[in-house]
Structures are given as structure tokens and as C-alpha cells.
Amino acid sequence: MAREELPASRGLRVLTFLHSFEPGGVERVALRLHSAWVELGADARLVMGREQGAMRAEWPGLAYEVLDRAGITGPLETLWMIASLPGAIRRHRPDVLFCAGNSYTVVSVAMKLLLGRRCPPIVAKISNDLMRPDLPRIAMPFYRLWLRIQGRRLDRIVAIAPAMAQEITEMMGVAPDKVPVIDNPALSNAELEHLAALPRPAHVGPARRFLAIGRLAPQKNFLGLLDAFARIARAGDRLTICGEGPQRAALEARAARLGIAERVHLPGHTFPLDDELARADALVLSSDYEGLPTVVLQAYAAGIPVVATDCSVSMASLLGHGRFGALVPPRDPQALAQAMDTVLDHPFQAEAAHAEARRFTVDLAAHRYLRAMEDLGPSAALSRAPRFQFR
């Protein structure tokens, strides 16, 4: 696939900041983008709050600065980042800051307040749906106000799918020209082809193999997934949930209480996911809210259908309006169970699903992000000699 052409004379110094290498979709996408920018020859800098986390092994040779070498800031990582990032900004003198997702917007807004006019322009990716059904009603006015504050302080707000752009403009109160749409860079072209070529083990007997992937955290609602699985599990059925997080003990206890502990496998953080994807009959996404989940695109590339909750304005379109799987309301174990029980009875358009996944590659997105950042660079950036050249 041909790369988009960008002018070499307007190269920007881009600084990406992340808390750690702990597994997370936002962090993985940010590391993909940063690595792609470096490969393109960009002057891209990466600042980590701490360097702990299982994903560190996935990025050998990655250059980055660590703000906390002792690794003691985990519980206070946001406050530590707010306190420490201004120093990194002064050292690296970036033209643009890249905010990797919703969980980092508080740091971005704090940089605007602390640094004032000395703060570089900020390009922020909205990684999760802005509708938050998990929040208590009393918190909603404060949440809506917070979205408006972000809309005033962030210079560009990237929608990761077309359906999210209108939601961003309305809820954050920003003009449409401030919201570029750049499909979420979930995979590379090479990864797509690799997943498509995975050998599929022969399926013997009626047993079904369900797969879920994500951090073991309340957002993913894996407790509800266990309830749904218990309702429809037949002899030999198996549910694997790949990921690690604070809800492990609660999930193990719930599985035992439901009498399905022997059928539920919690292998922890799993990389690569080749074996699990190759064995799975269907992927299940049980989240309360998401943006555009990478795991769905991985499933499409591997040729397996998806059962998903309607956890984002993008989900109906992403599921091909029924061509690639089933969509159910969030927090409805009965509906989720019924969809899981029947998903394999419907034809799955594997080739069309693979073509859908191909839209969401870092090979395309890396260029588009740099182009969106170009217009934000300070005038000083235009007078510098080019520091890099795009291929």
C-alpha cells in the first residue's frame, strides 16, 4: 500500500507521554504510533512516567525518558505526571504534545494551565465513547462540564471513527474543523496478514470456545460476561479471558459461585494472542463503554465473529450492522447470553470483515496524525532546517 506523501520541510517534534508499560489499548496504540513516527524519520520523543509493565518486552530497542526511575508512583501516577511533565517539555521543546486517550486529558489540560502560552499545542485522541452510562446521575453535570473544559483547552481532538466525530463536537462544544477523523491505528498491515494466516485447529464436537480480551477492570464488565456464559454453557464449552487487572479475585470468586470455574480460563496478560485467536470460535466484548476496540479488529483479521455490547456510537457500524456478529445492550446478561448462544448459527462474512479491519492500520494513521499536527506547529518550526524526511 502506497504511503501518503507529506512535505519534508515542515517536520514537527512530537512528544508522547504515557504513565507506564502496563497493558492497555490506549498505551499500545500510542506506542504503535510513536514507533511508526520514528520509522518514518520523525523527531518523535516518548516520555514514560515509570517503566514497569508487561508491554515493555513487546517494544525492544524503544528509546524513551523515564520520569520516575524508582517506579513508586503507580497509585499517584497522574499527579506525578502533572508535576514532572513540564520539566520534560522544557528539555525536549516539542512543537506538539500527543495525548493518547481520554485517561490522559487531565494531564493535558493541566499542562495548558501550568504552562500557559509556553505549552505546545495538544493533539488529543478520544479513545473511549463520551457517553458514560456507568457514572452515577449526580456526577453527570460535572462530567459534562469537564468535557467542555477539555474542548476549550485541547487544540485538536481526534475522532477514531466517523461516528464519534459528531458526538465529540456536541458534547465537548467544539467546531467540526477542530475534530479530524483518523481511524484508530489498531494493527499494522503485517499483523493483519499474520492473523489471517493463523492455522485454525480442527473443531471436534459441539463444544464452543469463547474468547474475551482486556484489562480485568470494571469498564470491561467481565463479571457480567461470566453471568451470561453461565446461562448458556454446554458440556465442553470454554471461556478464556486474556488480561490482568484488579478484578481477578472477584472474577475467580464469581466463576466459582456460578459453578463454571473449570470452564473459565484466566491466563493473564497474553502476548502474542495468536494461539487464543486461532482456537476461538467467537470473540465477546462485554464492556460498558469503549472507543473503537482493537480486539474486534484482531478478531476480524483472524476470521472469527464477534458478540459485542453497544458500548460506543461506532459499534453498530464496526459490526457491519450484523454482518460480522451480534450487538446487544450493555449490562444485559440475558441478551449477551442469547447472542453468544446463537452467534455461530449465522454466516460470517470473513473477507468483508478482513477488509473492514484493513481501514484501521498504523500504516495509514501515522501519516494522517502528522498531517493533522502540521498546522499546529509554531512559526519557529517553519524556520528550522528540516530535521527529518518522510519516505
Describe the fold and architecture.
The chain has 15 helices and twelve strands. The chain has about 400 residues and is of the alpha/beta class. Helix 7 (about 220-230) packs across helix 12 (about 335-340). The model is unreliable at about 1-10 and about 380-390 (pLDDT under 50). Helix 4 (about 140-155) links the parallel strand 5 and strand 6 (about 155-160). It has helices at about 25-40, 75-90, 105-115, 140-155, 160-170, 190-195, 220-230, 250-260, 275-280, 295-300, 315-320, 335-340, 350-360, 360-375, 380-385; strands spanning about 15-20, 45-50, 65, 95-100, 120-125, 155-160, 210-215, 240, 265-270, 280-285, 305-310, 325-330. The chain has two domains: about 10-185 and about 360-385, Rossmann fold (3-Layer(aba) Sandwich); about 190-360, Glycogen Phosphorylase B (Rossmann fold, 3-Layer(aba) Sandwich), CATH 3.40.50. The strands form two sheets. A six-stranded parallel beta sheet has the order 3-2-1-4-5-6, with helices on both faces. Strands 9-8-7-10-11-12 form a six-stranded parallel beta sheet, sandwiched between helices.
Number of domains: 2
What is the CA-atom radius of gyration, in angstroms?
21 Å
CA-CA gap between termini:
13 Å
In CATH's first tier, which class of the largest domain applies? Answer: Alpha Beta
At the fourth level of CATH, the homologous superfamily of the largest domain is Glycogen Phosphorylase B
- The whole-number mean of residue pLDDT values reads 89
Specify the overall morphology. globular
Note the quaternary state here: single chain
The helix-strand sequence is EHEEHEHEHEHHEHEHEHEHEHEHHHH
Helical segment count: 15
> Share of helix among residues?
25-40%
CATH topology of the largest domain: Rossmann fold
